[in-house]
Amino acid sequence: WRNRHAARGVSFYVMHPGWCDTEGVRTSLPRFRRLLRHVLRNEAQGADTALWLAARRPAQTRDDLVWFDRKARPAHVSARTRRSAGTPGELVALLEEELQHD
């Protein structure tokens, strides 16, 4: 999408909010929540980077970055996560198909 829409000035970012104390965590991961409650973020903390990205729209030096706490981080911590069974093009096709169903 970044390449397809670059001429229009549209930016795309990948970000991670961190683990947040949401209803989904409360109901789906109660033990996880109980053990890590002291480090879980609230809604505002989880939304911070997404809102910051929308307001600032920082330049990205590489395509394989994930934004976390307002910083660009490597998308892969381990060499084992660098490849998936699908291709980026297949993911784009899937997302575009899903958007057509809405």
Strand fraction equals 5-15%
Number of strands: 2
Side by side, the strands of the main sheet go 1-2
Low-confidence stretches: none
Round the mean pLDDT to the nearest integer and report it: 89
Tell me the major beta sheet. Answer: 2 strands, antiparallel
Please tell me what the overall shape is.
globular
Instruction: Give me the strand/helix succession.
Output: HHHHEEH
**Radius of gyration computed on alpha carbons:** 16 Å
Helix/strand/pairing category: mainly alpha
Helix content: 40-55%
Distance separating the two termini:
19 Å
What does this 3D model show about the protein?
With 102 residues, the protein is mainly alpha-helical. Helix content is 43%, strand content 8%. The chain is built from five helices and two strands; from the N terminus they run ααααββα. It has helices at residues 2-5, 23-28, 30-36, 43-56, 88-100, and strands spanning 65-68, 71-74. Strands 1-2 form a two-stranded antiparallel ribbon. The protein is globular. The mean pLDDT is 89.
State the main characteristics.
102 residues; mainly alpha; two-stranded antiparallel sheet; 2 strands; 43% helix; globular
